Amino acid sequence: MPEQSRLSYIQHMVLMMVIAVVGWAVFLGLFLLIFTDNYEPSVSRTVWWVWLIVGTIVTVITMFVCFRLLQTPRQWRSSAAIALFAPAMCLDALTTTYYNDWFDQGIHDDTAYSALILGAAGIGLLLAMLITKPTADKS
């Protein structure tokens, strides 16, 4: 990879990571606004499923919008998706671990929160992998 191309790649991935952290903060804020009372997933599966479906759709749309706006080359899309989801997933691990200490939302919210994030991120990563055009190895 030529030096200019490598620099462009690194800049692109860093920008995707910044978008990831901002998106993570927005998602957490929305989660806390929507689930203001104790939330028991076994009592209200409909809310959980709606949140999962809407969250996943928004996550996937965000990924494709980033690809379009940042003009992500096809061969970078898998890496860009990882850069978009990995920082948020790391922050989610921290949030899930300390959820009950930081937020007084109830005992089951941390489980719902982490399940929603991991589900949406996993679907986004699988889609990015499927739409990425692999490059032939030059041996």
Provide a brief overview of the structure.
The protein is mainly alpha-helical and 139 residues long. The protein is built from 4 helices and no strands. Helices cover 76% and strands 0% of the residues.
Helix and strand layout, with pairings?
Elements: H1 3-34, H2 45-69, H3 77-102, H4 109-131
Helix pairs in contact: 1-3, 2-4, 3-4
Describe this structure in words.
This protein has 139 residues and is mainly alpha-helical. The protein has helices at 3-34, 45-69, 77-102, 109-131. α1 packs parallel to α3 (77-102) and α2 packs parallel to α4. The model has no long low-confidence stretch (mean pLDDT 77).
List its traits.
single chain; 139 residues; mainly alpha; 76% helix
DSSP strand (E) fraction?
Answer: under 5%
How would you describe the shape?
A: elongated
Please describe the biggest sheet, giving its number of strands, its sense, and whether it closes into a barrel: none
Task: Give the proportion of residues in helices.
Answer: over 70%
Q: What is the element string, with H for helices and E for strands?
A: HHHH
Runs with pLDDT <50, length 5+?
none
Number of separate strands: 0
Helical segment tally? 4
Mean pLDDT figure? 77
What is the CA–CA distance across the termini? 15 Å
Structural class: mainly alpha
Q: Output the radius of gyration.
A: 17 Å
